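seq:
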Amino acid sequence: MRPTARLCYDHLSGILGEAIHTALFRNGFLIGGDKPELSPAGEEELRRLGMDLDALKQPGRKPIAPCVERAEGKMYPHMGAHLGAILLDGFLKIGWLTPAGEGGKDFSITGTGRDGFDKLGVYLPSEK
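struct:
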C-alpha cells in the first residue's frame, strides 16, 4: 500500500505528492510538458503561500522536474528537483504537514493542510 505522504530524497512523494503534481498542471500553475515552468499564476499562488521561489534561480540544481515513484508495479509522478524541495519545506513551515512516525520519512496532513490542499485543488483519491 502506498503511503499518503512520504519523503523521496528531499521532496514529497506518495499519494499526496502525486496529487500535488497533478493539481499543479491541471490548475495551470505549471506549463510545458517535458520542460515544465511555473506560469505567472502558479508563481503568484505559491508566493502567496510563502514559498521561497527565488531559490529556484540558484545555480547548481535543476529548478523544476518531475520525479517518479515506483510502487505496486506502477510508476507515479510527483514534483522533484528544487521546486519539489521548496514545496515540502513550505508545506511544513505553514503547518499543512507534520512529520509522522519514526525515521522522518513519513508526514501527516494537518486539518489546516487538508483545507489548504483542497483550496489548491489537490485532492486525495479518497476525498474526491
